[in-house]
Structures are given as structure tokens and as C-alpha cells.
């Protein structure tokens, strides 16, 4: 079997959180779908709440600190990404947007991405299409057609096994197809765009 890396970014603010719960369900379903396609998976989970101060430092200094750099490299070097955020004021959270803001400009270029969101009410579900999908399209990510929204009532009796479970499985299958069809991502090389000074001096 080939092995691919799946990065899972959760922007939940509490511990435990419904955002992390949804992220884990999506990761488990995607892992199973990739196994069915003959692909082994290494899952790397990023809890943004653990890096809130690191992200704020990056915003004001322009550089990631030692704790944040591996997180950015994990996301940039992944073969696929699951990104889940709580919805506040009809859009993604400020913590989630801050993380996206500090990613390298081309970090998600062509990367298969599955979008997820949570909120207390189903009235916020359109945020996936009017806020999150345009954001990742701007980043040139390959966004899976199905995004998954989970309101508080979706976690009730039969929720995960019922309609929410069906949405998770459908979205996971779409992401698995995108990841399996893509050439494996290589390691992130921070010096890839450094000019060849010997060649420059020989001109």
C-alpha cells in the first residue's frame, strides 16, 4: 500500500468540543475510505486552540516560532486536509482565519480539502458555502464537493448513524478519491525558492 498524510485542523475553542468531534469523525471516515482504495494513512491532528498565542505572535512578527513552524509544515506537506471550524457571527472563527492568514501563499495549492463546520443552530450552515468555500478556492485548494455541517441537534440520538453519518461518509469518500488520485506530496523544503547564487554570479 502507498501511504499518504492527512492533516486535520480543528479550530474548536473548548476541550472537548463538537468541532473536534466532527473533525475526528471525518478523519476516521476518510481513513477508512482510503484503506478501501488501497491507501495507508498517517493522520496528523492540529488543535488550533493550543497555538492561539503562537499565531498571534506570527501576526505581529511575521515569523512562526519554534512551536508553530512544525504545524505549518504539517499542513503544507499533507496529501489531504480536513478543516473544521465553529461558526461565529455567520462565518468561520477568528482563530481559524488567523491560521489561514499565516499559511504560506501556496501552501494549499492543489491540496484536496474537506470542509466542516459546527454551530448551535442549523441556521448557520450556509457559512460553509458563502464563507469557507470561497476562502479555500482563493487558496487554490481542491475542495471536495460535499462539506459537512453539524448543528447541536445533529449529535442527538441516531444523528451520527443517520443523516449526519451519511453526509460524513459521502464527504469522506470524495476526499479519499481526490487524495488517492493525487501524486504524493513531497517534504516541505524551506529553501526551494532560494536562488542559485553560483549561476547568478556566472552571468
From TrEMBL:
The keyword Mitochondrion does not apply. It is an enzyme of class 1 (oxidoreductase). Residues 6-155 form the NADPH-dependent FMN reductase-like domain. The keyword Oxidoreductase applies. Its EC number is 1.-.-.-. SUPFAM superfamilies: Flavoproteins (SSF52218). Pfam families: FMN_red (PF03358). InterPro entries: CE1759_FMN_reduct (IPR023932), Flavoprotein-like_sf (IPR029039), FMN_Rdtase-like_dom (IPR005025), NAD(P)H-dep_FMN_reductase (IPR051814). GO terms for molecular function: oxidoreductase activity. Keywords: Flavoprotein, FMN, Oxidoreductase. PANTHER family: FMN REDUCTASE (NADPH). This is CE1759 family FMN reductase. It comes from Actinomycetospora chibensis.
Amino acid at each position: 500500500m502507498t501511504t499518504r498524510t492527512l492533516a486535520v485542523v480543528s479550530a474548536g475553542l473548548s476541550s472537548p468540543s463538537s468541532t473536534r468531534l466532527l473533525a475526528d469523525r471525518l478523519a476516521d471516515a476518510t481513513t477508512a475510505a482510503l484503506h478501501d482504495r488501497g491507501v495507508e494513512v498517517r493522520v496528523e491532528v492540529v488543535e488550533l486552540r493550543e497555538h492561539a498565542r503562537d499565531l498571534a505572535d506570527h501576526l505581529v512578527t511575521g515569523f512562526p516560532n519554534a512551536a508553530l513552524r512544525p504545524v505549518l509544515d504539517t499542513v503544507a506537506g499533507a496529501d489531504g486536509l480536513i478543516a473544521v471550524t465553529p461558526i461565529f457571527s455567520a462565518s468561520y472563527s477568528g482563530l481559524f482565519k488567523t491560521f489561514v492568514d499565516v499559511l504560506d501563499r501556496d501552501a494549499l495549492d492543489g491540496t484536496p480539502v474537506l470542509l466542516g463546520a459546527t454551530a448551535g443552530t442549523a441556521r448557520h450552515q450556509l457559512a460553509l458555502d458563502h464563507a469557507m468555500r470561497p476562502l479555500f478556492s482563493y487558496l487554490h485548494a481542491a475542495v471536495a464537493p460535499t462539506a459537512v455541517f453539524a448543528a447541536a441537534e445533529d449529535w442527538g440520538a441516531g444523528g451520527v448513524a443517520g443523516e449526519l453519518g451519511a453526509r460524513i461518509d459521502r464527504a469522506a469518500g470524495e476526499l479519499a478519491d481526490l487524495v488517492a488520485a493525487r501524486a504524493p506530496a513531497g517534504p516541505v523544503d524551506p529553501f526551494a525558492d532560494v536562488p542559485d547564487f553560483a549561476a547568478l554570479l556566472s552571468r
